[in-house]
Sequence to fold (438 residues):
Amino acid sequence: MKVSLPYGKSSITVRIPDYCDVSVIRKPPMPLVASPIDEVRKSLNQPVGCSPLSSVAKSSTTACILICDITRPVPNSTLLGPLVECLMDSGIEAANILILVATGLHRPNEGEELEYLIGDPKILNTIPIKNHHARNNYEHVDLGFTSTGTPVLIDRRFVEADLKIVTGLVEPHFMAGYSGGRKVLAPGIAHADTIRTLHSSRILEDPNCRSCNTTDNPLHREQLEIVDMVRKHSGSNIYALNTVIDEERKIAFVNFGEIVKSHQKAMDFADRYCTVSVDRKFETVVTSAAGYPLDQTYYQAVKGMVTPLEILQENGSLVFAAQCKEGLGSDEFRRSQRNLLEEGPEAFLRRVARKTTADVDEWETHMQVMAQRDFHISLYTDELNKEDRELTGLNLPHSMEEAIHAAVSRSESKNVAVIPEGPYVVPKIAQLVFVGDS
Fold:
């Protein structure tokens, strides 16, 4: 059997041995929006939990719009035009509208990359666009601490704007449950100290900190509290323009409104398609890191390693593909991977458990170790150099076919699950209900 997996900006074809019993797991078809730009305009006029944007904007002189950075395939070319148009029609001058790229601790998006991210020449030539810099202390407002002690410092350009709008893609996230909404605010435009605390072992080791789950999720809870702190400090509401896309990255859902209520509705919609029930676990799972832009660094590709683990048998094998054209990731992540190899998994986990804040990008190594505790992991990539290949700490086969054959041989089971879309599809073991005698 042949299957196609996203890989970079294209795909690779993988042949699964004919003797295998293959189950392909993907989202059910989504009902697509007929006219995305019209749907965005409609959402601005029919919001969730607030007045229409045109009414809200009339009392504002300045506005700050948050957008996700290049690591997320957000359809900004569709979202930003109607949004900015509405703000300007409501009396806010173009010079007083700021688009702020929520980079978190990632690198800034500039030049051709920024042009690709915005996707609209008119916006690029009309509206000021800046990157968030998490390490610049003076660019943040200190809002104090959350109830659990997380220091909250948020980009002052957003906090001090009259009108605050978050935009983003709502999709599974392996820590926060779902991306978008409150996550674009924190860690998106948070200070490094806030981000490092939100990614500490205390939070990551909580079993509720996982894909498609916000119930008792400590990261989600912290993010909601930070939203409330920003709101109280500034004395103004925060709004969100949310979207959900299908497997071909076409828009299936758009809404606008008060950040928490509108984001919850977007998560509810996404959950109906992104979580897929299966009736058993598998000894071998084949997947991807979802292609561009998520698989451009190994740091981001780790998400493809973690998401499918619920349906993988203990000591089973995960084989995933990620191009990693930009290499391993940041220097800090490279250092963290080197620490893992030098210390070993158990010593690494003991060390990070003693800290209240994680080192920068150490959390991705932490998630890798959690995946490797009970499973055999193989990564196919043809872009990493020799040093970076070694720093992954994974089995790196010459081909997907080689890794799949080894995995099936090791388990002596012919059952193989294939999840083409990687971290954007979250398989769940169906809960069986037994009816007893009355």
Notes: The mean pLDDT is 95. Residues 9 and 43 are 31 Å apart (CA to CA). DSSP finds 17 helices and 19 strands in the chain.
